[in-house]
Amino acid sequence: MSVTPIRLYGDPVLRTPAAPVVDFDKELRTLVKDLTDTMMHAPGAGLAAPQLGVGLRVFTYYIDGELGHLVNPDLDLSAEQQVDDEGCLSIPDFAWPTPRALRAVAQGFDMYGEPLTIEGSHLMARCIQHETDHLDGILFIDRLDKEQRKLALKEIRAAEWAGLPGPIVRDSPHANPTFEG
């Protein structure tokens, strides 16, 4: 098991767009394993490479018993929207109602460079969008309306972990049933 520290809100890597993967090699497979192990340990529903401090377009997910990953995702989103609580392993212990497309189709590659398509609605669609946002340097709080975002930022600044130097590893399982990625 290779659990890696998760970067917290405020770390610049979370705001930096990730580079496309060009080498589908052993290092990429190790990254996918580290992402998977860390996500399952946290526990979370998804985890993107920038959350481990790696600026590559890769994420893992674990939704409804389905474990997987996607490299270099390209999204096609439905016009129909959903709003539900959403959280993030890089903003621990918080969740806010966040608008997302109801359905998503993500095309990309697996860790071996083979074409892969992931599609889903509701929670899977939310996960695909959340993790792809991480790859673009976007956090879910950026999707909140102006007033909600202002309140969220106030709560984040008051959090026990706010301002701590460097990444942390969450040792206690998170009991919040909302999406955490």
Q: Can you tell me the CATH topology?
A: Peptide Deformylase
Largest β-sheet summary: 5 strands, antiparallel
Main-sheet strand order equals 1-2-3-6-7
Which regions have little confidence, pLDDT < 50, spanning 5+ residues? 168-179
Q: Mean pLDDT, rounded to whole units?
A: 90
Which second-level CATH architecture applies? Alpha-Beta Complex
Name the CATH class. Answer: Alpha Beta
Strand proportion: 25-35%
**Alpha-beta content class:** alpha+beta
Keywords:
3 helices; alpha+beta; Peptide Deformylase; peptide deformylase activity; 181 residues; EC 3.5.1.88; five-stranded antiparallel sheet; three-stranded mixed sheet; Peptide_deformylase_sf; globular; disordered C terminus; metal ion binding; Peptide_deformylase; 23% helix
